Amino acid sequence: MKRCGVFLALAITLVTASFADELPHVCVITQAEDTVGERLVYNVKELIRKSHAMKFMPSERETNCLRLIINTIELEERPTRGMSTVFSVTWVAALGTHEEGYIDSTVGYCGSKRVTETAESIVARTERLVSSLTLPRSN
After folding, report:
1. Residue 84: which of 124, 114, 111 has the closest Cα?
2. Which one of 95, 96, 129, 139 is at 20 to 30 Å from 114 when CA atoms are compared?
3. Residues 17-27: tens digit of each pLDDT
């Protein structure tokens, strides 16, 4: 029941932002200590900055936004060490200082040659989530 209330509050916040001609705010919180994971997070942030559907917020303390929580772990296999990462992405609604509501999550594997494509996929999913929670804009 609480999840439904938080989801509704986020939807109202994002709808209000769309009426005010303001893009929905998105911030990225990360725990990436491996090279491929750091590149993945960097690409996700850059693609959100370039997006026409949402506004990147550099502060991890941003409230009333959609948060992407990205965690990465380097695979320890010897022949591929430093060449891939396992990641998880969790999308949550941040409402005020203490309210967070789960929206969606995924896990995946990313090789060093697929960082851009993986970041594009994460951002595309984020845009779909944002658009499902906002009203269409009239131009």
Report:
1. 111
2. 129
3. 443 558 899 99
